[in-house]
Amino acid sequence: xxxxxxxxxxxxxxxxxxxxxxxxxxxxxxxxxxxxxxxxxxxxxxxxxxxxxxxxxxxxxxxxxxxxxxxxxxxxxxxxxxxxxxxxxxxxxxxxxxxxxxxxxxxxxxxxxxxxxxxxxxxxxxxxxxxxxxxxxxxxxxxxxxxxxxxxxxxxxxxxxxxxxxxxxxxxxxxxxxxxxxxxxxxxxxxxxxxxxxxxxxxxxxxxxxxxxxxxxxxxxxxxxxxxxxxxxxxxxxxxxxxxxxx
Length: 247
Hints:
Helices cover 13% and strands 35% of the residues. It has four helices and 13 strands. A hairpin with a 5-residue loop joins strand 4 (61-67) and strand 5.
């Protein structure tokens, strides 16, 4: 696994205002968790982003040098979680977990599919199952990923977690019955034609909308003036003129 070094500053203050100020200074607000204790820290944004962008960086073992306050010193840590801005992709926050090299940890590791299955060569369709697996091991044994070879997988066959051989020193905790990969049968021409025939042609009206059902994000129409409750009051009929009496 990847080993990296990072320097962090201990923060005396926390809060949204402090976090915004750190981001303006190109730093990432973060928290280091250790045996029920949390320490607010901050790091240089580009240093953390560089780690996250390398393969297996999310599971890198970090030699963290803390500066400032009484918590200063060297720690070993793993990235527990991080948040990015959904629009800009900028790193917003980071959670780190302090670890001891002689204590096992539980962590999610990515599944890496290798090989081209027999079933795909025969026209089958590959379908992903579990994309990550929970494992338990010593920090030094955390793998960058778990390799899964699907070369011998045929059409209508699946590969499960129980079929995977874990790396030495690693125990897989994910349920053994969970599916990792499946080869679905190819779609026949007749089935494809049937699906195309059932689909509405371009320009054709689709399924009619239910009256009164609003689309997601669409505001409800304002009720007619004078209407009470959910239903508008029925329109009143104009009074009929009576015929003049015969003399």
